[in-house]
Write a structure and sequence with these properties.
Organism: Pleomorphomonas diazotrophica
Pfam families: Aldedh (PF00171)
Structural class: alpha/beta
Bound molecules: nicotinamide-adenine-dinucleotide
Family: Belongs to the aldehyde dehydrogenase family.
Strand order of the largest sheet: 14-15-16-13-12-17-18
CATH architecture of the largest domain: 3-Layer(aba) Sandwich
CATH class of the largest domain: Alpha Beta
Distance between the termini: 63 Å
GO molecular function, one term: oxidoreductase activity, acting on the aldehyde or oxo group of donors, NAD or NADP as acceptor
Largest sheet: 7 strands, mixed
Radius of gyration: 23 Å
Protein name: NAD-dependent succinate-semialdehyde dehydrogenase
Shape: globular
Helix content: 25-40%
CATH superfamily of the largest domain: Aldehyde Dehydrogenase, Chain A, domain 1
Amino acid sequence: MTSMFQLLIDGTSREGSEGKTVPVVNPATGETFGDVAYASARDLDEALSAATRGLMSWQAVPPWERGRILKDAARRLRDDIDRIAHVITREQGKPLAEARVEIERSADFLEWGGEEARRIAGRIVPGRAPGQRIEIQPHPIGVVAAFTPWNFSMALAAKKFAGALGAGCSIICKPSQETPGSVIEMARALLAAGVHPAAIAVVFGEADQVSTQLIHAPEVAKITFTGSIPIGKRLAAAAGAVMKPVTMELGGHAPVIVCGDVDPEATAELLVEAKFMNAGQICLCPSRFFVEASIAERFTARFVELAAALRVGDGADPETQMGPLANERRVAAIAGLVEDARTRGATILTGGRRIGERGNFYAPTVLTDVPPDAAILHEEPFGPVAPILPFTDEAAMLAQANGLEFGLSSYVFTRDEARLRRLVDALRYGVVGVNGGLTHQPEAPLGGWKESGIDTEGGIEILDPYQITKHVNLQ
Ligand code: NAD
């Protein structure tokens, strides 16, 4: 029988050579709706040899033309947005409206990578001897191995495809096998737009086996990963052993500092939206709410009221505001964090329970009285739980906010300019959202500090991770 989601190698969709498949489950219903083909070591060898050929052909396409092709792929995604949104919602769970935003954002990234491809340029440095000059030439680094997760399966892969293909590299992507359809859709749009068929491969398989083989393959020149810190460390260590550069976009545990001078109700409204988007499964998601004691009661009351009122359901239902968690592991993890906090003395103000027996639904949850040793204050929750931590002493609060090894995103809410500057300067995070939510727009680079990552994605630097500088000294 043919799998619903096949490997894409050398422009051709096909089964894995050993015939292995795994089921793909709709997180809203628990039903298996398809299966995904797994690559064997031989399939990966074929992907590697195709990508090597693809690199030769694709890097020879003038950057201006590569830019046109990437922008055409973006147009194709936008033109087919309604159908593709259903593909994303069925496999990942997010509401259709959020799936549409994800497709738009993916298209934005492809366009941006295409624009930056058109601006590739080197420079000439005068030498010291008469007539001597040094050319600084940007070159595509080579075949890229990309590993992408299930929470924004299209958009997080789009950043890597945009940078790699814009720079002239070929790319082999291993998306999460739990959300295979989104990256396949994007790859098809890229191929239809004219990317060389051998320059793109999408493979699924046993994560450890695939990453080990691709990282060690001599054909691969660059590793890029988005996902959890533990896996990121493993992949970076493996890449380091063979001296290959990495881009690592890893997890976060964002502090949100709400100062006493803001409107508590309006701020709660903004933050409920930011917290429960994609059921909290966002690396930038606000996750530790430090609220100044003078407004904590009013903020918390409105936050709880809005969280409790969210319509939780199948993302395919247009009325749904929060979908299911993407997999059963997240439900178990969130239930474990909430139970740990409760047994240590935390109060559950709303939620704190699974909803129904079908699908991975967990109620939007708000906690207070959370003691400092509760696991939720140390582990990335990646789910719909908000611990609210009133504070009076700014210095002690900042020490706690900065006290973890995470360094991705953070948030500050205040109208006091001096305090804003002081807090923004003090936060050891790669991203600070001020008086609002955060999303990654392609025009600005974004990445983590500390254990949250290495390198950035996006911005005018979007091609940098995929280029190598050649210094040509002409005498
Ligand atoms: P996980 O750590 O097992 O996997 C994280 C991602 O890495 C998944 O997409 C998975 O397919 C991939 N992966 C796992 N092992 C791999 C390997 N050896 N080689 C290549 N890729 C591999 O955890 P999970 O249960 O899938 O996700 C839970 C945690 O992951 C969350 O708590 C969150 O911290 C993190 N996460 C972060 C992001 C992000 O955008 N930063 C995205 C998804 C998940």
